[in-house]
Amino acid sequence: MPLLAVEGLVKHFPLGGPGEWLDRVRGHAPKAVRAVDGVSFAVEPGETLGLVGESGCGKSTVARLILRLVDPTGGHVRFGDVNLTALAGEPLRRQRRNLQMVFQDPTASLNPRLSVRRAVEEPLRRHSTLRAAERRERAAQVLARVGLERELLDRYPHELSGGQRQRVNIARAIVTEPRFVVLDEPTSSLDVSLRAKAILLLAELRATLGMSYLFISHDLATVKYLAGRVAVMYLGTIVEEASTAELFRQPRHPYTKALLSAVPVPDPTVQRERLVLRGEVPSPIDIPAGCRLRGRCPLAQPVCAEPVTLREVAPRHRVACHLA
Amino acid sequence: MTDLLEVRDLTVHFDTEAGLVEAVDGVTFNVRSGEILGVVGESGSGKSVTALALLRLIRPPGRIVQGAVRFEGTDLVGLSEDEMRAVRGTRIAMVFQSPRTALNPVLTVGRQISRLFELHQGASRAEGRTRTIGMLKLVGISEPERRARQYAHQLSGGMCQRVMIAMALATSPRLLLADEPTTGLDVSIAAQILELLRDLGRRTGASILLITHDLGVVAEVCDRVAVMHAGQIVEVGAVRAIFARPLHPYTQALVRSIPRIDRDVTMEPIPGMVPSLLAPPPGCRYADRCPRVLDVCRRDRPAPRAAAPDQEVACHAAEVEDAPARG
Q: Averaged over B79-84, what is the pLDDT?
């Protein structure tokens, strides 16, 4: 059984205002930002699923939906045999001990008035029955694990560097020994050398603590390093999902091909074939009918105006493209 | 190829409360006509300060302590502020990292470009408008008439960066300084912007100094590259030469520290941290992080040595076949 299963997840943000009222009066469906528009995937125990896509594709909304930081418009999130979507209040909070998240902005996600020690102890107050002294000890252990020296424990976030802050965030996420951690662009605000250290730390923690990750990133090279499987999102839907090795060796969806061919490769002798998409991502309010990439895809055919669903083109390799 | 820009021994210090920060220390490099020179290094290596110093945009407590910036035969360091203003924006232009904050939020983007033609070239308002539309077309903006009437907040990040590039190129500069022009943009948009820069460089003959932390960007668009560490250039030369055979231990560590999509690698972080530039010790500033450190490294600052036809390295330990040291 998968550790986490997301089934038909939908999140629409209504636009509100007079436009919505007018639409209702005229009998149209009111307009909405269709941030996540039918997403399904599963993460096995110990597995890391990479979720990639460009800004606005809905990947961070998927993360928030999984943790129920926002409520879905439709669909389910199952964690083991628990349907998280059906929970509320205290039962939901109890699940969060096993489901944690590291946010993109290491500064904004720390309370400036809590010391490092307090920030890391906080989840234990909420989720454990440990006594104060035990909590202190446990927080110190976890902070040592992520490579923060003891003398930093009583510092406040503004006294730390960006890399150190992200380590505090990671420590806070793993202090309750969760089984599943959502990492939302955890390395994108870090400099090259710090990024490498953070990636290696995450890989090491996964190996020693047996956690599963949902690793959200727009940095394909990092995803390749850390994830065993990858799902590619475009305009609120998954367009391709495969094992990392297969996706990077043989991408099938034109969007995946375009994304991979756009990543600059640090080797000046490599000549690559570029698949260039026209224009920019359409607004998630006016999503084109049929294949969502149709208007930008250089390979588009008349058939692409028909709706397209994810189908298996090879074992455990799913693609949503008429032409794949 | 001739040199458009010759920077010699450029040194920039910041007088802070904590002490003197030696942000840029004796930096020497050339930018040839029509080439794209990449400048890479970690945050705090002095890349951006170097670019600002070229334009004499270092504000107190910072100052250019010594060095020469010879551009089209004139030393910019010796110019008066008025003379410098005539160079800035017209002969040398700059594209910044966050295009949205660099644009004026209360003027339409068309007006911002048009004003450059009016101010710098005495164009009439109507003429300015026509040439603005032409610039927007040049940088690949569709529906330029409509976009010209919009404000920065109505444009996407990629579109804002195109507008910035249009502004920078409006006065046909000979040198474009681009400071992390694609950082924060999505990969496909970043690829479009890089392609645009490379293409414009070819078409207008302008040279580009491209600051980036991304070795992939260097490999894809630059002709030559300068690697900076802690305010100093440690290695400079042709991109093909340096990627084929990086000689400085820092360049080697930089190459090994990145995950890559084109091959399977074991990533190794660069050891240690960028050293403090507050009263740095004499000798090589990479010494404390360097796996090949020698006694001499902590004593003498290594001078750049020619290692290959177009490759220079400043390292005591680098294996350079009996090439003469350069003063």
A: 94
B191 touching A (Cβ < 8 Å): yes
Q: Per-residue pLDDT for B235 more than 80?
A: yes
Q: Is the pLDDT of residue A64 over 50?
A: yes
Residue among A129, A43, A103 at smallest CA distance from A79: A43
Bond before B61 cis per omega within 30 degrees: yes
Q: Which CATH number fits domain A4-98+178-319: 3.30.70.100, 3.90.420.10, 3.40.50.300, 3.90.1150.10?
A: 3.40.50.300
Contact B261 A260 (CB under 8 A): yes
The fold of B3-91+173-313 is: Rossmann fold (3.40.50)
In this structure, what are the phi and psi dihedrals at residue A6, rounded to the nearest 5 degrees? -110, 125
Which residue is associated with the tokens 């904004």?
A: A108
Nearest to B196 by CA among B209, B183, B182, B184: B182
Contact by Cβ (8 Å): B313, B246 = no
| Position B326 pLDDT exceeds 70 | no
Q: How many whole angstroms separate alpha carbon B177 and alpha carbon A217?
A: 29
- Which pLDDT belongs to residue B321? 62
Q: State in Å, rounded, how far the first CA of chain A is from the last one.
A: 29
Residues of chain B positioned with their CB less than 8 A from the CB of A280? 156, 158-159, 189
Residue of chain B minimizing CA distance to A265: B216
| Contact residues on chain B for A265, CB-CB shorter than 8 A | 216, 219-220, 260-262
Best to test chain B binding among A247, A273, A280 (most B CBs inside 10 Å): A280
- pLDDT at B327 > cutoff 50: no
| pLDDT above 90 for A119 | yes
Of B246, B253, B216, the residue nearest B311 (C-alpha):
B246
What percent of chain B stands above pLDDT 70?
98
Which residues of chain B from 21 to 50 reach within 8 Å of chain A, CB to CB?
42-43
